[in-house]
Task: inverse folding
């Protein structure tokens, strides 16, 4: 789904823009995703899972997201560089269309600049504007205190736990936590 561009300022004063990623962002998006999965254990993939994934593959993914009726992919660009990404997916089945799922990832170099907060505010706004959506859901991995703090600040609360949902390369098992934000109408 298409969105309008949203300019804003980071906490350090730099200019940033939120917008749908475009075809010409494919290489930058691919570099971004490979980098973020290498910067933290709190994402669901590992860098080597992107081996063989090409900018053409990314272009197809972006086109699908931008053309979708029930999804929005957002990129935050700072100085022409992808600093973060966020997605919202609206459920479309009769029994679940009151729900939306959100995912967020910000490059370590941009942590603490307000990008995650701004992207989530925009996703919450989109959900509030969509008829029938009553709650937004997301998950975070055990130990990710920064993400949990951000989500709680924006009104999400823990609604469940999935024990041992993540297994790290060293064999460590971690829980994932489901969080929801109810949209009162």
Result:
């Amino acid at each position: 789904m298409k969105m309008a561009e949203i300019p804003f300022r980071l906490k350090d004063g730099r200019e940033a823009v939120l917008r749908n990623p475009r075809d010409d962002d494919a290489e930058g998006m691919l570099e971004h995703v490979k980098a973020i999965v290498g910067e933290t254990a709190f994402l669901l993939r590992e860098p080597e899972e992107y081996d063989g994934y090409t900018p053409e593959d990314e272009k197809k993914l972006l086109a699908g997201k931008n053309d979708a009726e029930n999804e929005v992919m957002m990129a935050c660009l700072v100085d022409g560089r992808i600093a973060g990404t966020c997605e919202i997916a609206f459920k479309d089945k009769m029994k679940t269309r009151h729900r939306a799922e959100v995912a967020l990832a910000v490059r370590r170099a941009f942590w603490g600049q307000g990008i995650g907060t701004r992207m989530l505010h925009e996703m919450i706004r989109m959900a509030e504007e969509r008829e029938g959506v009553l709650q937004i859901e997301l998950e975070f991995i055990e130990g990710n205190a920064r993400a949990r703090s951000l989500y709680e600040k924006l009104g999400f609360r823990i609604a469940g736990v999935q024990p041992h949902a993540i297994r790290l390369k060293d064999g460590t098992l971690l829980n994932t936590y489901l969080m929801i934000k109810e949209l009162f109408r």
Q: What stands out?
A: The chain has one domain: 6-182.
